[in-house]
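I am writing to request your help with a piece of structural work I have in hand. The matter concerns a single protein, recorded as an amino acid sequence and a row of backbone structure tokens. Could you please explain, in whatever detail you think fit, how the structure tokens follow from the sequence? Thank you for your consideration; the sequence and its tokens are set out here:
>
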Amino acid sequence: MELIEKPDRVDRIILKAQVAAKRRRRRLFGVKLNPVESRIFWEDLIEDGLEIGDPADDSQYEAFVGRLQDGVYEYKNTRVKLNVEGV
């Protein structure tokens, strides 16, 4: 038997941080992701139906990044800065 694991969902980590900030009467304004987290975040968006694409297709990821302005994605009132080095 071969077990295949996926990393933690980045979008859920962001949502938890938003809730924690709200408890402190603050709001989460922005998040900066590293290159690996950026790719996982895009895959999470596809799983949730917020983006259309194939998570295994690099060209679709490049197209997604290409249409972002300054590498920033607006996710539930939080600016998510994707790190797209090498893309």
Remarks:
- DSSP finds three helices and three strands in the chain.
- The longest helix spans residues 10-23.
- The mean pLDDT is 91.
- The first strand starts at residue 30 and ends at 32.
